Amino acid sequence: MKPYSANPNLTEPRRLRMLLIAAALGFLLLMLVVPLVAVFYEALKGGWDLYLKSLSDPEAWSAVKLTLITALIVVPVNAVLGVAMAWLLTRLTFSASSC
């Protein structure tokens, strides 16, 4: 059964769809999973005892606190600015002669 499309000439072949999905999953793996695994590998290289001992270090908690404060400030600001820019781009018209 063919997938429904308003214009049947615009449907992609199954092989192309699978290739694009594989490319997206590969990019996700490369940009998200590999760095996360590397961070945990480096953190646990000395063993669980050293890892748990480092969690009791006040400097480690200071770094975690600073990271969370930064994220709590930057994420909402980025979201507001992103929505504002998206709204502007959809409302404004651009002419080729102004470039």
TrEMBL record:
Subcellular location per the Swiss-Prot or TrEMBL entry: Membrane
Residue spans crossing the bilayer: 20-41, 61-89
Superkingdom: Bacteria
Membrane topology: Multi-pass membrane protein
Major location category of this protein: membrane
Keyword list, A-Z: Membrane, Transmembrane, Transmembrane helix, Transport
Keyword Signal: no
GO cellular component, one term: plasma membrane
SUPFAM superfamilies per UniProt: MetI-like (SSF161098)
Name of the protein in question: Putative ABC transporter
Species of provenance: Neisseria gonorrhoeae
Organism placement in taxonomy: Bacteria, Pseudomonadati, Pseudomonadota, Betaproteobacteria, Neisseriales
Gene: cysW_2
